[in-house]
Amino acid sequence: MKHKNRIHVVYIITKLELGGAQKVCLELFNGVQNADISSHLISGAQGTLVDAVKQNNQVILLDNFKREISFTAIFNELHCLWHLIKQLRSLKKVHPTMIVHTHSTKAGIIGRWAAWCAGIKTRIHTIHGYGFHDHQSWLLWLPLYLLELMTSIITTHYICVSSTDVATGTKLFPYFTRKYSLIRAAVDQHQFYIPARVTSLHESTMNTSTVSTFTKNNFTFGTISCFKPQKNLFDLLNAFALVHQHNSHTRLEIIGDGIQRRAIEQWITEHSLTKVITLHGWQAHVAPIMLTWDAFVLSSLWEGLPCAIIEARIAKLPVLCYDTGGIKDIILHEKNGLLYKQKDWHALAHGMRELTNNKNLYTQLHMYADNLDAFKNSYMIQEHRALYTQLTHTK
Questions:
Q1: What is the pTM of this model?
Q2: Could you tell me which of 250, 263, 246, 241 has the C-alpha nearest to residue 222?
């Protein structure tokens, strides 16, 4: 039976890991559905979140759809493209008014071209940071840019999560200003406000003033990050090691995992910091851990707008980080956090030390009244529904 009037959105992403793009994609997949809109999700079969969705009959998992881009394995990429085209054509027979909405770089390229080949008229892509960036060689930057440039021709609409991505798109892609919307990546804010979800350590201190941070035994820095080069965790480790030399009561906790884990563990062992640095691995629920931290630190070289920054400010954690991507849309220097030039980990370490010693600075950053209404899940979903309706009626 064809649903001629009901909008159907097919979300496409390559890997369901615990990242910001994945969280946003899943929130939309589950959240936009109502009497007027239905949805499907197409993803690769890898990732921590696969088990949570694989029983859903609206989810299609493709074994050969992988996040890594391989120019040498062109046959596999073409096979993946053809597989996606067939899936989309099949869905289009049931849902004539269909939208394809892609997330992440590779899914964005292959997904939009598959939608175009399948005759789907509305092709949306959310930019969670571009696949090309300043820290790549020209040999890698140029082909990635050219792929996105060619794909921009068949893109109906872009969604940007940060003003930085808007500026880049406006500069590098023709007609970008005519077909983009700024819709923030949102998070589940309620989990940071419910005492029942807070760990016992935080329950004993959550109603005290920030002065308790300076009277308890340890000061804990924390971060959430994939263990991969673009996240630049070794800068954070070096900065923390310098801070710990001057203040033995400092601690560092990291939520995440990835290809650099062995190298990171080796670094921690070689610097004799195994007792003060904790690697939590990936965690489905980060709030109970984050709410025990005193400050959030990030040393990424490439970001769109990291959801962890939003979560940190909901939890009223001062944020120290490099001025990367869309971070400055949330973090205002010396108001709710401290921003530093990329790769200047000595300056980052200085800021971390200052925060542990300066009660007035800590209180100022901690108590800043952020306006995070645009980062609520309900607002994000509402904005997407309105956009889908607008684009469908325009077509």
A1: 0.86
A2: 250
